[in-house]
Amino acid sequence: MMAASCDNSEKTESTAFNSLLQLILSDSVPTISVTELSRICEEVTILDTREAEEYNVSRIPGSVHAGFDEFDITKMDQTPKNTPIVVYCSVGYRSEKIGEKLKNAGFQNVRNLYGGIFEWVNQQQTVVNDDGPTNKIHPYGIFWSTWINSDKITTAYADDR
Predict the structure, then answer these.
(1) Any bridge partners for residue 134, and if so which?
(2) What angle do CA 76, 99, 82 make, to 5 degrees?
């Protein structure tokens, strides 16, 4: 079983990033820290709620593409409602919305990765694409790329992959 929301002190090292997340997230879905997810990633279903072009550039290892605009809750029909699920996107906003849909559909153990894939790479975790580990990440847009502070990561869009 997954742990409850993570302590604020574990969330991000950036006060500005935490402030942004407090503004855009409604806390309707409990969060999980990068540290905690990295410990249990093989025990949970990880859903990437970004668009396909973002997912194709890089993703958290073991994650499954769920999408945001094209998210289809009926694709979860065969998944038991007590399955531990972690959702993520770039920073957590889109994944929170998908997490709400999952909760409304009766899923009981849903968590949102606090800070999304950006915080994942900021904490030096590996991202992959179809070819294996990569140092690229799709930042969704130029504004959002400012929240990526890992010097090991470069931004790329679908055609730069």
Answers:
(1) 127
(2) 55
Q: Could you report the per-residue pLDDT of 63-88, keeping only the tens digit for each?
A: 999 999 999 999 999 999 999 999 99
Asked if the 8-160 domain carries CATH number 3.40.250.10, the reply is yes
DSSP 3-66: --SPPGGGS-S-HHHHHHHHHH----S-EE-HHHHHHHGGGSEEEE-S-HHHHHH-B-TT-EE-
Q: How many residues does the chain have?
A: 161
The full set of domain ranges for the chain reads 8-160
**Angstrom distance (rounded) from CA 41 to CA 27:** 22
pTM here is 0.89
Residues 21 and 61: their CA atoms lie apart, in Å, by 24
